[in-house]
Amino acid sequence: MTFAALGLSAEIVRAVSERGYTEPTPIQAQAIPVILKGGDLMGGAQTGTGKTAGFTLPLLQRLMAKPVAGKAPIRALVLTPTRELAAQVEESVREYGKYLPLRSMMMFGGVNINPQIKQLHGRVDILVATPGRLLDHLQQKTVDLSHVEILVLDEADRMLDMGFIRDIKKILAVLPKQRQNLLFSATFSDEIKALADGLLTNPALIEVARRNQANELIEQRVYPVDRERKRALLTHLIKEHNWFQVLVFTRTKHGANNLAEFLNKDGISAMAIHGNKSQAARTRALAEFKTGKLQVLCATDIAARGIDISELPHVVNYELPNVAEDYVHRIGRTGRAGSEGEASSLVCIDEKKLLHDIERLIKREIPVVQVPGFEPDPRIKAEPILNGQNRGQGGGQGRGQPRSGGGQARSGGAPRAGTAGKPAGGGAGRGAAPVLHRSGGRGR
Ligand code: AMP
Fold this sequence. Notes:
The chain has about 450 residues and is α/β, with parallel strands linked by helices. About 35% of the residues lie in helices and about 15% in strands. It is globular and about 65 Å long. It starts with 9 loop residues before the first helix and ends in a 7-residue tail after the last strand.
């Protein structure tokens, strides 16, 4: 199956092949023909399936079927729950539409509204927005949605989880009645079904397997620990259980580097992979990780997305991701065919809310395991997670002692990691090596 065979125009096929895609993903193969015909669609798919191109490519083509010269009105509206997703989708729209005379715009809150108002004075064919800010514009009458022909609700379940339903309804109320509606959601709760019932007309239902679904074979655990003692706990767990092929997620590149350095000093072979590393260094790290020579790989979400590493015995969330869905992606790396994988999260007081969001998303509570000697000090107060990293974590300094809450050093609770001994470097006993393969062009 090729993109051209799905009925996409030469300009779109060209942009897609320059992006490195050789064939459509299952959701694309199914969704594109439906959307091209003008029908409504309910898509069960989450990030990682290629859903963005699945709706963007046919959307671009449909807009091109009725070209509008000059200052065209907004004809396609894509609503997303987060600014990150809005930015990602809009970038895809621009990239896939780079040989087409269409203009797109992203719009989200938390930034000055004036540049957005200015941009809306120019040509915008496709608007990718988060509901809150779009509503602000509607109230200020700085956006005109009266010519929208295609509406996309991306990650609708997350929008509902985030409490956007009222905003969405207000937005729907100002759209023309006659339009094409596409709804994507990773889950089909009653709420989503109710939304879909009111929105979609005779929709095609397409559901694709969730590549990164939190599957039953993954044993998930939360290890409560103080932020300053995460590194000690990680070392303890790795040594105590003789873990090999451990993929450890940090929030930042800096955190990944520092953690790898710390682990090495502690006798655990570790390397950080991220965008700043050369391709050669990454390839080498992955090869060594695969053979078990390298015990731990420290990665950010972005770095891990670029390279498909799956079927690992251990994934560790050294820091919980800011976006709950990333948790599902991360732990999806473990759980080998037919055998169990372990996903361990080291959670400090600052991350309570993130944990709560994750548990809501996966609709279950993650069992808590308290490692003796690592009990959180109740006097330590939560601190905000700034710029994706809260202080003390992943940093190279400040070994051991908590810095907040008044200099309280724990007594009598030292971990007994030393007795576990230094693991041999051969990765023995972990069974099959993980599957490592480049995933053609995926992941940014
Ligand atoms: P999405 O599910 O839309 O977030 O896409 C997940 C990743 O898959 C993105 O990094 C895309 O660039 C990539 N991708 C989308 N379609 C294809 C394709 N047909 N072949 C290879 N990669 C793709």
